[in-house]
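quick q for whoever's on today - can somebody do inverse folding on this one?? i tried earlier but teh output was garbage lol. tokens:
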């Protein structure tokens, strides 16, 4: 990993289960990411935190450490609930990758070279084609599917560099995609790196998105559960209550620690 990597220190944040999550509305998030992609040096890595990812990081210390080295955006109603519990207010925007990335590509009016890694080969190709229709002033470059031999990682990134990518979008699922970016991708590969989960599948129309009404009501998870019950039931039926349990235990633990600290300070006064 050569070159310097931008930290998330300059971004307003809220702590969610020990992870700093960017406290940005749509406009500020677009400005931040657009500026990162336009830099002449350095790199910003953007990841997303939703209830499922939070559950994964609670049992995976490596993943949690990786997220702390990236700029994390809030994804979904679960992290809004966590924000309300910890900070008394929900996030300004639901910056989920499926909506954020296409909107960002529309927002950036300067032509960019966008490298894409992830999904199945046919899905990757269709996603690049559809993104090209969505924002035709950018060049979308499908580099590799997401099922390559990890021993080839440096060769794949050499192609990204040869194509002079400004933005690299990686869609290999969490926590694999975030860990892979952390281990292999350097500032010489792209100014802005975004890990996006199932975005290519949605853009390629391999999976349908929920109707807009359900998305506005923050019920897209219910639609996905109905469409793929065998694959998604653990994530939502078991995962959502588990996430809420993590949130409330974290809240109670924090209160207990503060109470102990206050009691110790009081004892020293007397």
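ok took a stab at it. sequence:
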């Amino acid at each position: 990993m050569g070159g310097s990597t931008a930290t998330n220190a300059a971004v307003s944040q809220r702590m969610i289960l020990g992870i700093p999550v960017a406290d940005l509305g749509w406009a500020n998030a677009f400005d931040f990411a657009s500026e990162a992609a336009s830099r002449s040096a350095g790199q910003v890595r953007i990841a997303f935190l939703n209830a499922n990812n939070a559950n994964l990081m609670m049992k995976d210390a490596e993943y949690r450490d990786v997220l702390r080295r990236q700029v994390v955006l809030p994804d979904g109603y679960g992290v809004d609930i966590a924000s309300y519990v910890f900070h008394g207010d929900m996030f300004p925007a639901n910056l989920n990758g499926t909506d954020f990335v296409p909107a960002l590509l529309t927002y950036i009016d300067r032509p960019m070279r966008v490298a894409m890694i992830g999904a199945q080969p046919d899905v990757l190709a269709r996603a690049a084609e559809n993104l090209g229709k969505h924002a035709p002033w950018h060049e979308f470059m499908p580099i590799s599917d997401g099922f390559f031999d990890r021993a080839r990682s440096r060769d794949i990134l050499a192609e990204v560099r040869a194509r002079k990518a400004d933005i690299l979008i990686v869609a290999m699922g969490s926590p694999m995609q975030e860990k892979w970016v952390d281990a292999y991708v350097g500032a010489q590969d792209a100014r802005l790196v975004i890990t996006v989960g199932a975005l290519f599948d949605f853009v390629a129309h391999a999976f349908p998105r929920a109707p807009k009404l359900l998305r506005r009501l923050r019920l897209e998870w219910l639609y996905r559960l109905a469409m793929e019950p065998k694959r998604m039931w653990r994530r939502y039926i078991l995962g959502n209550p588990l996430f809420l349990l993590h949130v409330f235990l974290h809240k109670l633990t924090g209160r207990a620690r503060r109470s102990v600290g206050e009691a110790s300070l009081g004892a020293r006064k007397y």
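fwiw The chain has one domain: 13-213. also Residues 170 and 181 are 8 Å apart (CA to CA). so keep that in mind when u check it
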